[in-house]
Write a structure and sequence with these properties.
Elements: H1 2-21, H2 28-35, H3 39-89, H4 93-125, H5 132-159, H6 163-183, H7 204-231, H8 237-257, H9 263-286, H10 292-318, H11 326-378, H12 384-387, H13 392-398
Length: 405
Amino acid sequence: MKHRSGFWAVAFAFLIVMAFATLPSPLYGLYRVRDGLSAFTITIVYAIWAAGTIAALIAVPFIAGRIGRRGVMLAAVATMMVAAGELAAWKALPGLLLGRLLTGVSVGMAAGTAITYLIELRLRADPTASPVLARTIGTSINVGALGIGPLVAGFLAQWAGRPLVLSYLVWIALGVVALVGLAAAPETGAPTAARAPFSVRLPAPAGAATLAAFAANGLFAGLSGLILAATFHHASHALAGATLFIVFTAGVLSQLVTARLPASSVFALGTISMLVGLVLLVTAVRLSTPSLALFLVSGGLIGAGAGAVFKGTTGLVLDGTAPENRVAMTAELLIALFVGLSVPVIGAGVALDPGCKRAEHRARLRDSRRSRCRRRRLGTARPPAEKLAASRMTRTILDTKEVLL
């Protein structure tokens, strides 16, 4: 009974940490206004998060060997809560950078441990059970939770007060609940002496497939803000969050629908879905009248494909991995996932930065000319508030960097 309740406590803790990874996505426009951030600076913020995540994934097999699975999950939730408190309290760019670094560390620790921990808890509760259900729940949370954070933060930013504080306070409260549940969860991987966790190697095809699948996912997420604002003329925080929710929820649904299929078939179906989604994405924005509905469908298919590919590769890899090497193998697989997810976003940020700066400069010149014309017509001095007014075009273009960062 203790292992069953522990299973769901670990699943909940994993869910909130992974959701926290993308929680600030719809808030970057607000950070940009508050701290005067450029598109390139926001890209640096994202790169710091990705570096923290990958560094933690590299270290997590060693850490788990010393403090156990439960110890790593407790540390991940505690680090997430520290990051949330720091982001809510420190209202400056250094605080944002440090908060996202700590977020990456917490995500890497949880992602590298939770799936293996869930499988082990399931088998301890019922030694005759198949690990497939536990693995599916773990991979579904890994993908689906990434859409929950932006959805909640986007709606709070759109309709609640203090959006740069409230979302983090909510997650601190959730973290307290997760710590209470984890404290009662049993340990499955007892601390051991130092070993060589990375003596096992991820098969190259599995790593390449995971990287490619989440590169497509990252490409959609990185460009969706630009497409929503520039093509469909929607820059809503709620819509940006809902779009990511659709993408990552589709990844969960594809894993659940294919639960009874062999891993190789899931992998093939995921690849097909992802390719069809990319074709529909191009079609949606190049129609004479761009279709928002088709755009969202394409995002769902890309997300579904990435989720299925991840489930398929996880099954193929972990089924042939000894229990003592599962954490190391999961960590290597997730490094490929996060590299694939990060590279398109960082690349888009670097590529868009010169255009954002030129657009901002042109918008300022245009606003200045309009202001001089109004003053000449009205014969009044320039109001102080006008000096602080941001151009609508500038906001639209720079909002493209809000998504997934």
